[in-house]
Amino acid sequence: MLSLTVGYQGVAGSFSEEALFNYFPNDIDTKNFEQFEDVFIGLDKEVIHYGVLPIENSSTGAISAVYDLLNQYDCYIVGETYVKPIQNLLGIKGANINELTEIYSHPQGFEQSKTFLSNFQCKLIPYYNTARSAEYIKELNNPTIGAIASKKAAELYGLDILAENINCNQHNTTRFVIIGKSLKINNVCDKISVVLSTKHQAGALYNTLKHFAMNDINLLKIESRPVQHTPWEYYFYIDFEGNIEDPFVAKTIEQMKIDCHHFKLLGNYKKQIKD
Amino acid sequence: MLSLTVGYQGVAGSFSEEALFNYFPNDIDTKNFEQFEDVFIGLDKEVIHYGVLPIENSSTGAISAVYDLLNQYDCYIVGETYVKPIQNLLGIKGANINELTEIYSHPQGFEQSKTFLSNFQCKLIPYYNTARSAEYIKELNNPTIGAIASKKAAELYGLDILAENINCNQHNTTRFVIIGKSLKINNVCDKISVVLSTKHQAGALYNTLKHFAMNDINLLKIESRPVQHTPWEYYFYIDFEGNIEDPFVAKTIEQMKIDCHHFKLLGNYKKQIKD
């Protein structure tokens, strides 16, 4: 049997790697990349079969760079999965929480632990991502320097957990999408993602959205992103319920396209249970 | 005459300070704050009369933290202004562009200069904002360390401009809003901003938006942000044309509220010309 190689952004111990193993079986090959865009390039060059990318966090919102790349690259969303990014304060072996002076993490790591951090006078230093922050403080090997990252990162880089589960919001969850080179549609697919830009005229956005109501299709989400080089025009990323083999859904899509300047079907996949 | 004190986030030489002087006359007092939220707190505690905050960039999109704070604090948008954030590569006096090994800037500074930076092998270090990056490399006083910031920051911190106007997108513009403690409405106001969350039922978002079309009101922008502590519900920030003293506009707002769970009028102000 052909082995499967799946890519993600970040390093081992990241929440992206956790999302990957949520969705795929344990015996696949993984490949990690430096930047989100590298995952798309890897897919394009057939270095990986699929990629796993964070697209939205329930507290901090859309991960805009991933939205932009989904529109830019020739790929499709084939699935989704959810991960609760549980943050922990880590230090090198023997570090004391009260002696920390600097903490490294991704800005979202700081944002998600804001209430906990307000009790400390530490300097917060933004870094590439949570797992690389853990790796970096291991290298620095200084007991006054901490990182905010996952438990898995603590295990991987041999760090102490100085404070466990420091998230201010215990419901905090990140949605990840699985991307592939082609659409993968079967009868269990019940969620559709599209991206469109409307013609530059009054009422165009409304005219596009009205087809959802007319065909009784449930609109799940709208996210807007700027169109590059044409200031103050927008791409709208829309998620809605349905299977594109359903004639009503197919009709809605055809009708929507009429008022669109740009239209791309991003995928039709199985909706996962949110927590 | 009472003097006016206006607050902004960042340090002297920042694009926020430039936006402030775009909107207000030169003889006002300014007060700078560390964080976006500090500007809102300053307004609340009557330390400042107005605040100036970036809300959206034409290339990189919404500044989500500012959207969230506008909903959270008891304040109103009383005006808007646009600034073109022109980025430059700065170094200490005598630095040579080919000898740089590290560059500090805000992640948006890197993003806006991506094409230019792709010609260099420098390590890019994310920092609080562009002007503070300039201030920091002045402190470091190392000819191999550069910063991406404004020309004004170069002047203020006595730095050399190693490369001028390095933006990949020459149309790049940031929209700023001016916030105050009360609504300031007169007959020149022609743009309205609201934030709402819809009831948790199929079609609720569509039912809210349909009133724009029914009353022939031009929808300018929709931005979505997560509702904290209730994962996967959204606040929609909507900009549209009109003056709330116009009976059609007042009626539209009353109708929209019916399908809303939360509704806040963020302001009615004069639309500025975009570039």
Folded structure, characterized:
The structure is a homodimer of 275-residue chains. With 275 residues, the first copy, chain A, is α/β, with parallel strands linked by helices. Helix content of chain A is 28%, strand content 33%. Chain A contains nine helices and 15 strands. Chain A has helices at residues 15-23, 36-44, 64-72, 107-112, 114-117, 130-140, 151-156, 204-214, 247-258; strands spanning 5-9, 29-33, 50-57, 61-62, 76-83, 88-91, 102-105, 123-126, 145-149, 160-163, 174-180, 191-198, 219-226, 234-241, 260-269. Chain A is elongated and about 65 Å long.
Question: Tags for this entry?
Answer:
homodimer; 275 residues; alpha/beta; 5-stranded mixed sheet; 9 helices; 28% helix; 33% strand; elongated
